[in-house]
Task: inverse folding
């Protein structure tokens, strides 16, 4: 009896020592990987920031209106945002690799799932950025054209274009991520369809006079309208 | 040497059959074949009377009229040669050459074709006209060519007699700004007719700019500014009353600003090494009156123009905020609150607005075409102020006012240089 207990304790002790002997080197490896990852992330951030400054991304971002949105959200410049994001993504990647070395059951599967999901997150972010740029460019073009043509509701036209492109970009990004796919498609169809139907009804019923004026102005009296202003050249 | 590769075989054949000439006249147009024929006949008549001993050729460059270029094609040589008309005094044959394009014609491509032809023909002096000008005032061509041929001027700009409310873009923006920055007092850079020497023609032909949009749409302004910036000999010739295009045929105010101001800003960008170091301005020799303004009544819709200015300043607030300095923007917003009777767009503010726009164009704070379009409401405001101030002014008063504006542009040039050289400014 006594021998059995002692033997059990010895076995438990040996197992513990064995586990610690197995775990410690892995833990050290994990720490090394995380430290190397931190260094690599810093280097990548430095190189990326220099490259983005060379390509004048901030100017493009300013032109596209993306910088304005970032400032509104109290975020740094586009160059800084991208280089910081890449820093964290790189370092988190190394941390996850390091953690997977520990061999904790169940964690491996979650980590690999997260890695499989990363490309989709990137594509969704890209879609959102391009949507933002396109929305800003087209809405400003519409605003300028409407103001210079003398339309009173230039801002409404501009914001409508911006809104439609944003909705489209957000829907596409969510679709890419696979989040509530059916709900997103249904919601987009309902919102877009309702907007168009609303506009059609509004123009059809409420804007008969306005439509007639616009048609007359464009088809019948364009030359006369132009000559209300002095010839520029 | 001309880049012969982009000229068609047919055009090269015609040029080779002509040989060398002293004078070359180009009629540049787009899809105006019928007008071209009349214009070419009238120009030929004028040249025969005015240049008796010179070898001359007329080239019609018409984008879209590929079949015959719009010029009479009689004769076995495909229209390259036409004998002198009966009773005229020219001792030489005037050749007619036709050039057309199959695709994507533009004013820039037409001018490039003309310059290449002039280079191959070794023409000493060249003139460019539109079919409309050639039809209404063919003698203008001789007046333009004479200074280039006999007095060795490299660039001959036209001057016109205008109604006092005509050409306001040139009077309030293009002329004073170009004068202040490039230092030469040439009034009409954006015109359909001008002349130049073979030296300037070859210089321009050798520039790698022909695919740039401002050169494609407004090559005449680029050529004039190149002449000023590179210190070619420039002069002006008074031609007479500028014919008005038929109602609705000319570019509207937005398109006119996009083409002319866009072209000017682009020239500032590409020619900054020349203008940044210049101070003041000097007059250029002028043949004929220095200026002429007539005072017929006009029926301009002042209230409509003023409303478009006010509405533009209000609705484009975020766009203008990214272009103008804070102080200038505030001042613009302040005058937009005034009523029509008390409204004045001061010269000081107008110059600051334009210099802010030029500097913002340089820094590309927003899309450059959008930036130029954002100037339209402010230009309307300036025009409205001008029309109110000069409703009953005599031509001499208007001229004095224009001179004041020009001097203000010159006085504030250091402001533009400072903003131009400043780094990228990111506004909050």
Result:
């Amino acid at each position: 009896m006594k021998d059995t207990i002692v033997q059990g304790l010895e076995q438990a002790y040996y197992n513990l020592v064995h586990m610690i002997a197995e775990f410690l080197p892995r833990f050290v490896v994990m720490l090394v990987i995380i430290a190397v990852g931190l260094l690599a992330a810093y280097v990548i951030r430095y190189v990326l920031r220099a490259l983005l400054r060379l390509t004048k991304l901030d100017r493009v971002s300013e032109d596209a209106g993306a910088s304005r949105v970032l400032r509104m959200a109290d975020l740094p410049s586009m160059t800084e945002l991208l280089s910081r994001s890449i820093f964290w993504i790189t370092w988190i990647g190394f941390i996850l690799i390091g953690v997977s070395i520990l061999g904790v059951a169940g964690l491996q599967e979650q980590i690999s799932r997260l890695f499989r999901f990363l490309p989709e997150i990137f594509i969704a972010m890209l879609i959102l950025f391009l949507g933002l740029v396109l929305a800003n460019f087209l809405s400003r073009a519409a605003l300028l054209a409407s103001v210079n043509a003398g339309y009173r509701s230039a801002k409404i036209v501009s914001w409508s274009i911006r809104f439609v492109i944003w909705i489209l970009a957000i829907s596409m990004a969510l679709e890419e991520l696979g989040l509530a796919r059916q709900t997103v498609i249904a919601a987009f169809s309902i919102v877009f369809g309702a907007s168009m139907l609303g506009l059609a009804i509004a123009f059809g019923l409420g804007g008969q006079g306005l439509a007639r004026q616009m048609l007359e102005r464009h088809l019948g009296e364009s030359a006369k309208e132009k000559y209300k202003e002095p010839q520029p050249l | 040497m001309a880049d012969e590769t982009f000229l068609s075989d047919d055009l090269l054949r015609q040029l080779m059959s002509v040989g060398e000439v002293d004078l070359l006249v180009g009629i540049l147009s787009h899809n105006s074949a019928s007008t071209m024929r009349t214009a070419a006949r009238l120009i030929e008549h004028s040249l025969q009377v005015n240049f008796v001993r010179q070898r001359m050729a007329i080239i019609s460059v018409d984008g879209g009229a590929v079949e015959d270029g719009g010029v009479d094609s009689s004769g076995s040589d495909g229209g390259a040669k036409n004998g002198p008309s009966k009773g005229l005094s020219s001792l030489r044959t005037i050749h007619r050459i036709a050039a057309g394009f199959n695709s994507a014609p533009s004013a820039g491509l037409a001018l490039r074709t003309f310059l290449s032809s002039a280079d191959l023909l070794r023409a000493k002096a060249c003139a460019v006209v539109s079919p409309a000008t050639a039809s209404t005032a063919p003698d203008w061509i001789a007046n333009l060519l004479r200074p280039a041929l006999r007095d060795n001027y490299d660039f001959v700009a036209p001057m016109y007699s205008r109604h006092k409310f005509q050409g306001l873009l040139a009077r309030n923006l293009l002329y004073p700004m170009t004068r202040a920055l490039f230092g030469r007092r040439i009034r009409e850079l954006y015109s359909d007719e001008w002349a130049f020497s073979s030296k300037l023609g070859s210089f321009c032909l050798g520039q790698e700019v022909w695919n740039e949009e401002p050169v494609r749409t407004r090559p005449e302004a680029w050529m004039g500014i190149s002449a000023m910036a590179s210190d070619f000999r420039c002069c002006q010739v008074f031609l007479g009353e500028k014919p008005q295009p038929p109602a609705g045929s000319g570019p509207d105010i937005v398109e006119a600003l996009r083409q002319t101001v866009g072209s000017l800003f682009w020239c500032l960008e590409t020619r900054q090494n020349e203008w940044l170091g210049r101070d003041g301005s000097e007059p250029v020799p002028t043949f004929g009156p220095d200026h002429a303004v007539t005072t017929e009544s006009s029926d301009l819709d002042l209230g409509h123009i003023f409303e478009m200015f006010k509405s533009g300043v209000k609705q484009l607030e975020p766009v203008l905020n990214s272009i103008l300095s804070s102080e200038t923007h505030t001042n613009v917003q302040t005058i937009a609150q005034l009523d029509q009777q008390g409204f004045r767009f001061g010269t000081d503010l107008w110059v600051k607005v334009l210099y802010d726009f030029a500097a913002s164009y340089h820094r590309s704070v927003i899309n450059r075409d959008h930036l130029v379009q954002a100037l339209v409401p402010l230009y309307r405001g300036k025009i409205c102020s001008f029309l109110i101030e000069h409703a009953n002014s005599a031509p001499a008063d208007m001229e004095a006012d224009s001179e004041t504006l020009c001097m203000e542009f010159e006085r504030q040039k250091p402001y533009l240089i400072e903003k131009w050289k400043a780094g990228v400014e990111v506004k909050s």
